[in-house]
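Exam revision sheet. Question 4 asks you to relate a sequence to its structure. Input first:
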Amino acid sequence: MKISKKIVSYTVAKPAESSAGKNSTADAVSDSTSKTSGHLADVIHMHETLERPNKLIGSTYKLKTPDHVSAHAMYITINDIVLNEGTEHELRRPFEVFINSKNLEHYQWIVALTLIMSAVFRKGGDITFLVDELRSVFDPRGGYWNKGKYMPSIIAEIGEVIEHHLIDIGMLKGNEPDEVQARLIEDKKAELRAEQSASTDSGTSDAIPEDEPWMASATHCAKCNNKAVILRDGCQTCMNCGDSKCG
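Answer key, structure tokens:
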């Protein structure tokens, strides 16, 4: 440091005063940083070193496949952790998953799948890719229909359960049609029911469920995997999600 002016007076600073000056400067910087960051440093995010709490919120889903696939149901339990509870940054995120079944045929891959999925959950970040990965698994022996919906494999149906759970906790948006689409679908269903009622009265109809008469001739929808595609107004239209080949 170069002094260009005359020294007219001087004082010796004591060590205590020097450290106090440094601390006051550091405190001012810290206060300024906390104000500009909005206390973001206190927000807890999901990461793999996050310790498991003693208590977690759990949801259990029953997955029953047709008997020719598996005679016993699977019970899928997903435990969630609540981050930043009681604050504006509160989030509910999946922490671990367990799958239980009396059928020991699938025991090995079930254990491996739950361990991998739980590790991905705890890793944090965007975990929604798991849904697409699981739903894209096809059984070489062929898929099956379950409650009017086509499932390419048991693993794909597990992916369906994971998707429903992520929608419930707000990590995914639902695939429900919008208000206009929903109204259009209901109008089409009403037309089909009226036509079925007329054909039944004339005695030309086969035995078809009264609640959904269009199901008998419906085909598989590639978008929502439901057996709900019919030909209406010269266009293949899904009566479940509203997907149409005509746009």
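Marking note for examiners. Helices lie at 15-37, 107-123, 129-135, 154-168, 179-201.
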